[in-house]
Amino acid sequence: MSIDRLFVANRGEIAVRILRTCNEVGVTGVVGVSVVDRDSMAAELADRAVVLGPAQASESYLRVGTVVQAALGTGCDAIHPGYGFLSENPELAEAAADNDLCFVGPPAEVIRLAGDKLRARSVAVDAELPVVPGREVLTFQEAEAFVAETGFPVLLKAAAGGGGRGIKLAGDMPQLRARFGVAQAEAESAFGHRRLYVERFIRAARHVEVQIAADEHGTVLHLGERDCSTQRRYQKVIEEAPAPALDPAVRDALRDAAVAFARAIGYRNLGTVEFIVDVETSSFYFLEMNCRIQVEHPVTEAVCGLDLVALQLRIADGEPIGLAQGEVRLTGHAVECRLVAEDPASNFAPSPGRVERFDVPDLDGLRVDTHCRAGTLIPPYYDALMAKVITHAADRDGALATMRETLDNIVVEGVETNRELLARLVGEDRFVRADITTTWLEELFA
Fold first, then answer.
1. pTM for this predicted structure
2. Which of 121, 292, 338, 396 is catalytic?
């Protein structure tokens, strides 16, 4: 591998995850940290840590120029953005290329295309993927005209956004009127543009995404799909692979559609094509493509037996994937729960503080990706994800049994967590029967 020294432009568990692979494949790992993360597990694990700036992400992790200069100044020849922060920022990919740094992800022009919902939708239509009825709107009157054609409910989204941020659901005209301006303001604040995308909301839907790998030698293949339907406010809580209780024909069609879309946009490296599956009709619709490694990638790793970060590095280095689609073997079932420092009893308020105790059981089929241990500081400035708890077994029942045992025996002291909620969810009858939709968790709380 010609990548010799990798700059990890991220923090928390994903920085630790990337650095562990660096150690395994013989790549020197350098991590950029904010002032508050100087004593983090990632900083300790890296061969070198360099301070990017103050605790606020806008002054450290989100500064393209600072990240690139830090990579150059520490002698790195590649940058891995992880997920979140700058991971889908085409300016970072562009700046890396301009400075002869290998960017572990797709080219800037592909990130721009996939990140623009309107352009991505146009490519999906050309590639003959089904899409949810929707259009770009700049004024309330345009949104009103769309609703006159399709009816309620509808979703308002930032046209240039992603990751579930800033989405507003409108079930009638007063809600549309009240939430349109709020959605525009959030879109401008988060993504720098007031463009909105309005689309028909499918009431009974599952969120299913397909993991894609593509190299510069013409290979594009899928590594199976994941079900991410357990969500709260459009943020994923539990993911699993493969998607349970899915019609085999729909499963095959989803995988083929994802590969077709990746080919159509000239994708390279790892990415995820997301779909909505209408539970009532078994129809599916293209949603978007994420140009990064996903939080939930470990469940795919568990069932396909591949290190996806190592695969990212090889592809970025110009190497072929080295697999044909028929050689991808998916075995067993995997489930991931996101353990977060928040208090469900207080409307999911964040719970920053210092971890006093962090113990996980030693069980067969259990993997825990974390940046936490006794003494770890959970600062109030960033996402509060503490750990990803992943279980893998020969079948779904086995994976869920191990997950229930794990969640019953994890001990975290010093901060509040959602552990008890996760334990409840994986034991709920509808979840066990795989009879859930993207609104199930909200309905459970209601």
1. 0.91
2. 292
